[in-house]
């Protein structure tokens, strides 16, 4: 019988790609959604409402593994007090709801794998390389990531192997950050942001999804793991590589930081700051990245663009 993987946030950028890869590997997939959807292509949909802490409990009870990707997009809207609350609650309360169902039915899945972010280490610039042992930050995103991971650790308290994937910038075809940047750079209007020196740890969507699959299949994995390529990519070098990959050029000056802050407010921190992040911990356990070179990763992502 096929092992079932329940995914929260399964209709998003990462969730859709991960679902495809899991089905290829012979898993059955269930997805928790806020609205009713017909079961199709071997995918079973269940309904949940995080704000009222209600869900179709069969989603959890039939699962062998749970991958928790749910969470509002941190860069979609300006960070008002209300928006900050939505960003935090969408991650934390959703995990707490799953925990309540597991605990209620004394259900043990084989692994609980939760998304997290390298924002755990804070909105900083500098040459230091962050490892999984680096202390967390006390800025907004750092605190959100800490609460997110603490909610995931509730599952560990039930004796469930728990893995937290601290993810950098994800590169994917017609999705994520490239979906926003490619149209601008194709018109020759791309430029670096702020100083351009801020580091931009990245990962190809394929490698990220393979890491999630490794997390459910490799029983040695537990705790936090960084999901990035540590190649010292800066905002300037990334911008130049993207322009080159599109056969374009960069001629505009850097966008001044003060203009970005005027337009984005506090949210500007996520693009004006960056840190180097090590992925040695996951590699020491045998995981291998397919896309380690930025130019090759961009070439793959820009096919058919």
Topology:
Layout: E1 4-8, H1 13-24, E2 28-33, E3 43-49, E4 54-55, H2 58-61, E5 65-68, H3 81-104, E6 111-117, E7 129-130, H4 140-156, E8 162-167, E9 169-172, H5 176-186, E10 202-204, H6 205-217, E11 223-227, H7 235-245, H8 257-264, H9 269-272, E12 276-277, H10 280-284, H11 294-301
Parallel strand pairs: 1-2, 1-5, 2-3, 5-6, 6-8, 7-12, 8-11, 9-10
Antiparallel strand pairs: 3-4
Helix pairs in contact: 1-6, 3-4, 7-11
What does the model show?
The protein is α/β, with parallel strands linked by helices and 305 residues long. It has a domain at 4-171 and 201-228: Rossmann fold, CATH 3.40.50. The protein is 38% helix and 17% strand. The protein has eleven helices and twelve strands. The chain has helices at residues 13-24, 58-61, 81-104, 140-156, 176-186, 205-217, 235-245, 257-264, 269-272, 280-284, 294-301; strands at residues 4-8, 28-33, 43-49, 54-55, 65-68, 111-117, 129-130, 162-167, 169-172, 202-204, 223-227, 276-277. The strands form three sheets. The protein has an eight-stranded mixed β-sheet with strand order 4-3-2-1-5-6-8-11, with helices on both faces. A two-stranded parallel sheet has the order 7-12. A two-stranded parallel ribbon has the order 9-10. β1 (4-8), α1 (13-24) and β2 form a beta-alpha-beta unit. The model has no long low-confidence stretch (mean pLDDT 94).
């Amino acid at each position: 019988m096929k092992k079932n993987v329940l995914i929260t946030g399964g209709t998003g950028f990462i969730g859709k790609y991960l679902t495809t890869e899991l089905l290829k590997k012979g898993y059955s997939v269930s997805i928790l959604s806020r609205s009713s959807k017909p079961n199709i292509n071997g995918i079973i949909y269940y309904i949940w409402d995080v704000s009222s802490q209600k869900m179709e409990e069969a989603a959890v009870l039939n699962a062998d593994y749970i991958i928790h990707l749910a969470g509002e997009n941190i860069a979609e809207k300006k960070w008002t007090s209300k928006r900050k609350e939505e960003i935090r609650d969408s991650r934390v309360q959703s995990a707490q709801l799953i925990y309540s169902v597991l605990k209620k039915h004394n259900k043990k899945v084989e692994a609980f794998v939760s998304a997290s972010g390298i924002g755990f280490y804070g909105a900083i610039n500098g040459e230091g390389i962050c490892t999984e042992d680096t202390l967390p930050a006390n800025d907004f995103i750092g605190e959100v990531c800490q609460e997110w991971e603490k909610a995931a650790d509730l599952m560990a308290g039930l004796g469930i192997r728990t893995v937290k994937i601290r993810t950098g910038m994800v590169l994917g075809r017609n999705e994520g950050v490239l979906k926003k940047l490619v149209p601008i750079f194709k018109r020759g209007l791309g430029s670096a942001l702020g100083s351009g020196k801020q580091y931009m740890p990245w990962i190809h969507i394929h490698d990220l999804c393979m890491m999630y699959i490794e997390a459910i299949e490799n029983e040695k994995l537990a705790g936090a793991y960084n999901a990035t390529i540590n190649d010292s990519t800066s905002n300037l070098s990334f911008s130049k590589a993207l322009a080159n990959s599109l056969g374009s050029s960069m001629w505009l000056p850097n966008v001044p930081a003060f203009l970005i802050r005027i337009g984005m407010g506090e949210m500007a921190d996520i693009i004006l700051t960056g840190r180097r992040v090590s992925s040695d911990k996951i590699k020491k356990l045998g995981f291998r990245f397919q896309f380690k070179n930025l130019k090759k990763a961009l070439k793959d992502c820009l096919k058919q663009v």
